[in-house]
Amino acid sequence: MDDKTLTAPPSLGFRKPCGACASCDVRTMAVCAALADDEVAELEKIMTSRNLVPDEMLVSEGDPLRRVYSLTAGVLRLSIALPDGRRQITGFLLPGDYFGLADDDVHSATAEAIGAVQLCSFTTRDMQALMERFPKLKDRLHAFTRMALRQARDNQVMLGRLTPVEKLASFLLTLSMRAAEHKLSANPLSLPMSRTDIADYLGLTIETVSRSFTKLRNTGLIQLPEPHIVELVDNRGLQAVAGMDFH
Amino acid sequence: MDDKTLTAPPSLGFRKPCGACASCDVRTMAVCAALADDEVAELEKIMTSRNLVPDEMLVSEGDPLRRVYSLTAGVLRLSIALPDGRRQITGFLLPGDYFGLADDDVHSATAEAIGAVQLCSFTTRDMQALMERFPKLKDRLHAFTRMALRQARDNQVMLGRLTPVEKLASFLLTLSMRAAEHKLSANPLSLPMSRTDIADYLGLTIETVSRSFTKLRNTGLIQLPEPHIVELVDNRGLQAVAGMDFH
DNA sequence: TCCGCGCATTGATTGAAATCAATGCACCGA
DNA sequence: TCGGTGCATTGATTTCAATCAATGCGCGGA
User: Fold this and answer.
1) For strand D, is any atom closer than 7 Å to the CB of A201?
2) Domain stop point among A158, A190, A219
3) Which of A52-66, B9-23, B41-55 has the lowest mean pLDDT?
4) Which of A65, A87, B29, B218 meets the CB 3.0–4.6 Å disulfide criterion with B96?
């Protein structure tokens, strides 16, 4: 029966090198959504497909920026490190997200795969040229950048002014919302990243993250059937905790 | 065109309503730097000048976005508030900075004047149209947005992973650098914003901000001739404290 | 001149998150 | 089967920033 699909060599590599865009999972939400079906062929011409294994580094802080990417499967983590090893994760990218919005010549952040990842890869040159040819494409990328800026600013509020439980509640809600937008399961929510990643995203230690999970569980707002799966039991309650309730 | 004679000198104002761009203080660094001298006339046609008195609110969170602004004098603070009154300042805008990069229809942040402020104001419609006419203008705004995104991400690192003294050192250095870029004094650095503003920017309380100032003063890294004027005595030392030294 | 007010600083105390330390548990290879 | 390893959780202790409280100081108005 379907056992075959479950056991078959998973995820890594069902993307076809050509003609794949039309049937792509993220066709409607990624950059390429700016282009009509016939125009996407032009995008496909300059596209190369790339897979990452868990924890593989895509780019490192300081690397010259040569390529930009559209994420088609898996989750990417963006982080910035301090000289002494402290780390801040500035965001998680989901399928349909674009990587390469912020920088010009040099990468200001490190990008690593969380679990297996699939990407469409473009040289900055090619993408630049295509953007000139299809202004819609440029506009969409600009819109993405603006969205990323709003997210980054919301994150500043989270980091600067929320308490640990509030941070976690806010994180879970935001991730759930984004999962929905990206056609992933919003409610039994999957958390592919480790507690360390969550801590480095929220500006906390793993212990405090763990304790905050427990608090949310004990107050009945979430359930944790497994460490990497959360059920948002009381969405409203979570919003109240996250300081995001505007009655 | 004899523009000089037409200019009415209002309270704050050395800006002229017409023909002023050519001699504007921020002509070389603001958005308008994308345009040649003759093209700037087109920008000036759709521009209105506006002054703000200290603490005047330019826009409030949730307001519909109808106009965008280019700051010509003074400092603007951008903030986001939580329902219970907690506040996070996401950035300070200096002369030459642009306001209206992040949002589409609705303002996601409040913008208020710190001290007296002068702005060039444009309707989003007009600016949109001009951007279509002068792609260079659009490109420059996009570049601004990308820069703002990088700043916001650096801020996330600051908020999530630096200690109070590190935060303050980082703030002073960044502000000093930006002041220099904006043709303001970089070393006897002026801090027009209140301690409360600094606290809400760094994610601290005013007391902790004050104590951090004292620590930096006691370690000889800065001097504080007045509460709103800082001398960066040991720039390297400050960088080391700010966790920004890459040997 | 003096009072009151806003703002920054300093001191004392408290409390919450970091740190230190231990346990549990799943997974893996010997 | 049995250690060993990595990760999450929980508990005990410490530390440092928040809170509470007071003082100083410049400024404007009565």
Assistant:
1) no
2) A158
3) B9-23
4) B29
Buried-state track A55-93, b at ≥16 Cβ within 10 A, e below 16: eeebbeeebeeebbbbbbbbbbbbbbbeeeebbbbbbbb
- A137 and A200 inside one domain: no
| Residue B224 CB in 7 A reach of strand C | yes
Prediction pTM value: 0.92
Helix, strand, or coil (residue A71):
strand
Judge whether B247 lies within some domain. Answer: no
Q: For chain A, say whether B238 makes contact (Cβ under 8 Å).
A: no
Using the Cβ of A104 and the Cβ atoms of chain B, whether some distance falls under 8 Å is answered with: yes
Domain boundary among B112, B135, B156: B156
Query: The domain containing residue A97 runs over which residues?
Result: 9-158
Task: Spell B42-78 as b/e; 16+ CB within 10 A means b.
Answer: bbbeebebebbeeeeebbeeebeeebbbbbbbbbbbb
B residues 14-73 closer than 8 Å to A (CB): none
In a domain, A247, yes or no: no
Q: Is residue B139 part of a domain?
A: yes
The Cα A110–Cα A58 span in angstroms is 8
* CA-closest candidate to residue A13, choices A76, A55, A73, A75: A73
Cβ contact A187:A232 at 8 Å: yes
Q: Which residues pair with B231 in a beta bridge?
A: B188, B223
Chain A residue closest to B62 (CA)?
A246
Tell me the per-residue pLDDT of A152-177, one tens digit each, with 9 for 90 and over: 999 999 999 999 999 999 999 999 99
Mutual angle of helices A195-202 and A206-218, in 10-degree steps: 100
CATH number reported for the structural domain that contains residue B174 in this entry = 1.10.10.10
pLDDT tens digits for range A39-53:
999 999 999 999 999
B152, B168: one domain: no
The reply to whether B132 and B237 lie within a common domain is no
Torsion of the alpha carbons at A60, A65, A67 and A72, rounded to the nearest 10: 40
